[in-house]
Amino acid sequence: MPTVLGADLEVPVKGGRLVGYANLDYAASAPCLEPVSAAVTAALPAYSSVHRGAGYASQLTTARYEQARHTVRAFVGARPDDAVIFTRNTTDATNLLASCLPAGTTTVVFDTEHHASLLPWKNSVRLAPPAFPGEAVRAADEALAGIDGPKLLVVTAASNVTGELWPIAALAHIAHRHGARILVDAAQLVPHRPLNLTALDLDYVAFSGHKLYAPFGAGVLVGRRDWLADGEPYLKGGGAVRSVGDDIEWHDDPEPRHEAGTPNVLGAIALAAACDALTATGWTALVREEERLIARLRSGLASIEGVRELSLWGDDHPRVGIVSFTVDGYSAREVAEVLSGEYGIGVRDGKFCAHPFVRHLLGEHDGGCEDGTASAVRASIGIGTTEEHVDRLVDALRELVTR
Ligand SMILES: Cc1ncc(COP(=O)(O)O)c(C=O)c1O
Fold first, then answer.
1. Which of 92, 156, 266, 279 is the most exposed place for a label (fewest CB within 10 A)?
2. How many angstroms separate the CA atoms of 289 and 282, rounded?
3. Residue 189: how many CA atoms within 13 Å on its side-chain side?
4. Which of 109, 353, 355 is the pocket-test mutation for ligand 1 (most atoms within 8 Å of CB)?
């Protein structure tokens, strides 16, 4: 396993003691992998602007930037002619695609989505959270059948609330049967599972570097070139144009067309280094370790009376290393504050930028918030998470509910 920076971070807790930080908030932003930090450090001495410089440093940095594109393409198993556009993050990537949809496109999206995938669309049909995976496919089928003109199905591969995996291959199949395209939000999938866009027959995928152990401000949109080549340049400025006179000649290659200005070169290099590090470690080992720890965490939570895990499709549905829960008698904020202030554990509380979904999951049960605002606590794991972190969280919650 590669190491993460900050594995030995100590944080103050009540009484002034220092304890090792138990970072259980990977789904928000994962810590930096050591090989990612090393790649950025190695690139810095020759750091220079890309594409337009004749100097050696500029050529070297350009080569590194373009190599990062190839690495990301290979990491997600993209087709040779797919565009790979560096963005700021997943939100930026979904908004970029939204700005390039052909006129009159209708988007079909489930209410379970993160806001980054729920909100950017001008004209969308929203589907209720499906009761089981086959229902997701059936609902998408029915919705897409009723739409004329260009259509796009948007779906998250792994939920940022429950960690549950969505049937993206079946949804891609249904989308294509109706002449629609599919965008997969892979922000929470790629840190935990391999993804092969070609094998799954996906049209677009989006994800963020900072959730993939590369917190240097880059994300990516990968997918079919045509809509991206025809769409309005996302940013208008240098790099996106071939020439400017009385008329403006925009690039029709999606990468320069949508990457105007000086790009986030170090972010792209970091993102690619993370892809390389995960590939070198091997998915079998990564998935095995994550499944061991998440099973330990979930069974620990299940053993505490008053702690309820949130789930759309039931306990046995496959999921990545993310678990959200409520604690009877405490608001999510109170729980998160106690975990941090007394035990040195970092978790997330709230609605995780998935308001409709969290409301749906909580239903009548409002998570104990006094103001009735539904919210939950989320623990999420990854490379660098230890058994001790998991056990500390379970023990802390057990203590909390018996106070
Ligand atoms: C599933 C999912 N999609 C999109 C996003 C948005 O990512 P970013 O904040 O990097 O744009 C997140 C972030 O939490 C997410 O979990």
1. 279
2. 11
3. 23
4. 353
